[in-house]
Amino acid sequence: MHIRNFQIPIVLNPNLFGFTNKKIMILFFGIFYLSAYPLFADGWESSLWKEKSYRNQRVSSADPTNGNDDFIKITKKKTVTIAEIKSRGVIKHIWMTLASKDPMARKNAVIRIYWDNHPHASVEVPLGEFFGQGWGEEYIMNSAPLVAAPKKGKSMNSYFPMPFESGARIEIENESEEDISNFYFYIDYEEWKEPLNSNLRFHAQWSRNVTKSNTTNGKENEWGLLGETEKTVFKKENYFSVLETEGKGQFVGLNLYVDSPTPLWYGEGDDLIFIDGNQTEANLKGTGTEDVFNTAWSPKEIFMHPYFGYPRVSDSVGWLGRTHLYRFWVESPIRFEKNFLFLLEHGHANSLTLDLIAVAYWYQGLNPKPMKDLPKKDSRSNKPEINFRHIHKWRDSFRSEKGYGEIWGNE
């Protein structure tokens, strides 16, 4: 929390800090106060009482006849522009919810956002995965910038500030074979008179890679269960690329959706972040997937903090199945001047086969080159579930190798 007036009443023995002179002690705490104050200045609460230099505006699905049909219909295979703003300002809040016969509607619908009449979208992500819900599912997500709220996560919210100088356009494409019969939305924004004095624009991009083991022998050797653990040899192409972009900006967030076909821990891989042309030695190097997401020791429990969390965890044996992790660098966006590359190792030494989907969030100037194309819905479809029946078949294969004797399973 940001606190405008950071004042703590202190009653201390001057000798506690080795001060014998009262004036020195006062000087010490004065320096402490002035050093701390900038950390807490310009907090959100100041906007509640300062004079406003903007005008609140909204685009919504409100019934234009003043009836109660406060929604639009998005026909199958159609794209609808839900907001076209022709001014200067900042989108501060987006709320959406929908109804469709398609159970995968949130994965089969795509949100695109264009800034300042730019020909290329700066946001192009399947709807659910943009708002923090993977695999077309509905579940609660509770972070600072993104919230999927009750009922059961049906309400999708974004609080990312999204500035624009000369206009904004938001589209929803329904790639489904079914109509979205009811699509409700608010786009709340501030209309500004003064220039933004920044050319950074909000971006979001979807990436997917069904990885394969890149160990020498092709084994999915994790935790040394299948022999000696290999040392990681860096090859860019062996890693999952979360984001690669050129220009000046700052990286602010990541939703990572992991579908693991093995019950073994999926997250031994490190994160590598390369900034401004350096792609041989990472500027920021991590120690494990759960670590970059601010957790520890291979967690498997729902936990949500404003900046990081696990809103969805596997409900199968071990870590088999689907897990969703998020991290938002709200406290200190990762700045870059020329280019940015974020790689993620899939298992130690890139040893594991995993279905990895990332949605990266960042700000940068509008790029003359488009982002990489979003695959069509058939290429975004979920991998089939691996369940207890498959595990039993794995056991049968193991027993057959042992001659179907009295096999417990750990021999």
Task: Describe this structure as you would to a colleague.
This protein has 411 residues and is mostly beta strands. It has three domains: 14-48; 55-192, Jelly Rolls, CATH 2.60.120.1390; 201-364 and 381-391, Jelly Rolls (Sandwich). It contains five helices and 23 strands. The protein has helices at residues 22-40, 105-108, 127-131, 289-292, 388-401; strands spanning 54-60, 72-74, 78-85, 89-100, 109-115, 123-126, 141-142, 146-149, 155-158, 162-164, 168-174, 180-192, 201-210, 240-246, 249-260, 271-275, 284-285, 303-304, 308-312, 321-328, 334-336, 339-344, 355-364. The radius of gyration is 25 Å and the shape is globular. It starts with 21 loop residues before the first helix and ends in a 10-residue tail after the last helix. InterPro entries: DUF2961 (IPR021345).
Give the arrangement of secondary structure elements.
Blueprint: H1 22-40, E1 54-60, E2 72-74, E3 78-85, E4 89-100, H2 105-108, E5 109-115, E6 123-126, H3 127-131, E7 141-142, E8 146-149, E9 155-158, E10 162-164, E11 168-174, E12 180-192, E13 201-210, E14 240-246, E15 249-260, E16 271-275, E17 284-285, H4 289-292, E18 303-304, E19 308-312, E20 321-328, E21 334-336, E22 339-344, E23 355-364, H5 388-401
Parallel strand pairs: 6-13
Antiparallel strand pairs: 1-12, 2-12, 3-11, 4-9, 4-10, 4-12, 5-6, 5-11, 7-8, 8-9, 13-23, 14-22, 15-20, 15-21, 15-23, 16-17, 16-22, 18-19, 19-20
